[in-house]
Please model this.
Amino acid sequence: MTGDPWQVDRLDLDGYLARVGLARVAATRSTLDALHEAHVRAFTFDNVDVLLGRHSGVGLDAVQEKFVGRGRGGYCFEHSTLFAAVLDRLGYDVRRHLGRVGDPAAGTQQARTHMTVSVVVDGARVLCDPGFGMSLLRPVPLVDGGEDDHLPGWRYRVRRTPEGAWALHRLREAGWEVAHTTDELEVLPVDVAMGHHFTSTFPGSHFTTGLMVTRHLPGRHVTVTHETLTVRVAGGPTEHRPLANGELGEWLDTLEVGLSVEERDALLDWDARRRTAG
Model:
């Protein structure tokens, strides 16, 4: 047992930086911005392993073998576990957080099943969110009313909630909507493991019943589910349509999901069986 429960000394930092295409530099805000965007562009957000029932866990060793070793992606617990470890090793002042997806005002009760990272850098605190579907490209100032519009047309805003949490709002065609709320409670590795266990095994979790693969591509963000295709362009109209029969394989290639032949075959077989049953 080490003094660091997150065991960031086990991280292959050079391997990670090579994977995202950056060199090791000083821990500044500009470096953090570049690192956040490089991470989001390098790795897909997806639930493939959860859907196929073969997830190896969200500990750092498993996550870096998957992301750094194989170039795969994953979901929030994996993205933020890896990203926080990288920032720790680079010398940033890092905190891990859990939060609830969706708008609390909607009246539905959500578990703390989203993971984010906050960083104090150059005297200011920012929110990093590398693993949330259409993830932030750059960190957002963690102050009430803090905004990021790194790409015009894709605006994000942080607001303080009456309970003392941080709500991340995103601007969509219909106006501002709450993506998630992040609290200030201490997070331990066991909390992340429990959140992952719930989202990867609970029958009501959408990660166990439907596919989601997303990625920021040059000039657009693509979301592929087992049913639909959504392509968003900053400042432009959104394309949203049903996913055609047999089209999934093409998008797995376009999004460079990094599946092995066996993983790809298993996912396409799952899709074919689902379509036949439906």
